[in-house]
């Protein structure tokens, strides 16, 4: 009896079939191109770009209105400054201040600054009280007026500048408020808003001649105004003595016309003020100085200086 012979299987045939099948699948993918891989990369790259970067931009407004010349009649100034996030992503704004090279650092250091957030520019007035969240310093060094802003939002700060007694006369400082906005690890460039602060020339000191304690003669330079200009001597806002024109340039000041209610014994400041056509005081001080009220021979007397 002859036994049927079973066909034998080559030991590598299974491997060949799997290799051929694998190659066929690879051929199909390659024939279709790399669209799936590119689409995945493209979607990832696009998503990352729009989420991480977005649009970042910010603005600062209101600084130009801060330019001021301080004088005897302008002793403080209050202005509103607005910081705005004009981009498409939320961010945190922060500020620094700097003095432009060539302008007076001494003046910037001598102007006291208080700043506080307000609801609107209308809330920032000369009479407004310093509010919560305030910062203080000088225009040479001021803490950040920072806040977090949503896209399209803004913050307004009320800023009050007051020169101190150490402010130099006839000086000008050019100050920049520098704004940056940060979102994550991204930061905008520096946005600057600048302004100038000036001080007028120092008020001249009047000349003074004693007359034995009975009265003093105050004199000042009249050549810078028409000789018909009228002047008056003022103590604490009240005129003392008679008004005089520039033709004479001298005001006699007696102790008998200065009450103790107006000025107690001791040194007191007198301002020689330019009068208008109705003989009312203007804001222009032609000269200033000090006289001293004291007791002499049982009566009130006056002398030049302190």
The name CATH uses for the topology of the largest domain is Immunoglobulin-like
How is the main sheet built?
6 strands, mixed
DSSP summary: helix tally = 3
Average pLDDT reading: 84
Top CATH class of the largest domain: Mainly Beta
Strand content: 35-45%
Estimate the helix proportion, in percent.
Answer: 10-25%
Would you mind describing this structure in some detail?
The protein has 306 residues and is mostly beta strands. The chain folds into 2 domains: 58-199, Immunoglobulin-like (Sandwich); 207-304, Immunoglobulins (Immunoglobulin-like, Sandwich). It has helices spanning 13-32, 35-52, 105-109; strands at 58-61, 68-70, 77-85, 91-99, 111-118, 135-138, 147-149, 154-163, 172-183, 186-187, 191-199, 207-211, 215-219, 230-235, 238-245, 250-254, 266-275, 281-296, 299-304. The longest helix is centred in the first third of the chain and has 20 residues, at 13-32. The chain is elongated, with a radius of gyration of 40 Å. It starts with 12 loop residues before the first helix and ends with a strand.
Which descriptors apply to this entry?
14% helix; 306 residues; mainly beta; Immunoglobulin-like; 3 helices; 2 domains; disordered N terminus; elongated
Strands, helices and their partners?
Elements: H1 13-32, H2 35-52, E1 58-61, E2 68-70, E3 77-85, E4 91-99, H3 105-109, E5 111-118, E6 135-138, E7 147-149, E8 154-163, E9 172-183, E10 186-187, E11 191-199, E12 207-211, E13 215-219, E14 230-235, E15 238-245, E16 250-254, E17 266-275, E18 281-296, E19 299-304
Parallel strand pairs: 2-11
Antiparallel strand pairs: 1-3, 3-8, 4-7, 4-9, 5-6, 5-8, 9-10, 9-11, 12-13, 13-16, 14-15, 14-17, 17-18, 18-19
């Amino acid at each position: 009896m002859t036994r049927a012979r079973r066909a034998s299987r080559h030991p590598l045939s299974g491997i060949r079939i799997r290799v051929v099948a694998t190659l066929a699948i690879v051929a199909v993918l390659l024939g279709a191109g790399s669209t799936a891989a590119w689409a995945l990369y493209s979607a990832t790259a696009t998503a990352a770009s729009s989420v991480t970067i977005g649009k970042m931009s910010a603005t600062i407004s209101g600084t130009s209105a801060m330019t001021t010349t301080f004088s005897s009649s302008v002793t403080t100034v209050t202005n509103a400054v607005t910081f705005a996030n004009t981009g498409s992503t939320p961010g945190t704004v922060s500020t620094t201040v700097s003095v432009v090279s060539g302008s007076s650092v001494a003046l910037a250091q001598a102007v006291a600054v208080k700043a506080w957030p307000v609801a609107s520019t209308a809330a920032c007035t000369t009479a407004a009280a310093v509010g919560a969240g305030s910062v203080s310093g000088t225009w040479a060094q001021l803490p950040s007026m920072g806040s977090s802003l949503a896209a399209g939002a803004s913050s307004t700060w009320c800023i009050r500048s007051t020169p101190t007694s150490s402010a130099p006369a006839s000086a000008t400082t050019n100050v920049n408020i520098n704004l940056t906005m940060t979102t994550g690890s991204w930061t905008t460039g520096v946005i600057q808003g600048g302004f100038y602060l000036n001080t007028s020339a120092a008020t001249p000191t009047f000349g003074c001649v004693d007359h034995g304690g009975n009265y003093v003669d105050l004199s000042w330079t009249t050549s810078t105004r028409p000789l018909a200009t009228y002047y008056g001597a003022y103590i604490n806002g009240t005129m003392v003595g008679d008004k005089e024109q520039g033709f004479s340039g001298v005001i006699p000041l007696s102790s008998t016309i200065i009450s103790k209610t107006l000025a107690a014994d001791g040194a007191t400041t007198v301002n020689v003020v330019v009068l208008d056509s109705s003989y009312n005081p203007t804001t222009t001080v032609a000269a200033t100085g000090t006289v001293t009220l004291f007791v002499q021979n049982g009566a009130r007397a006056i002398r030049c200086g302190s």
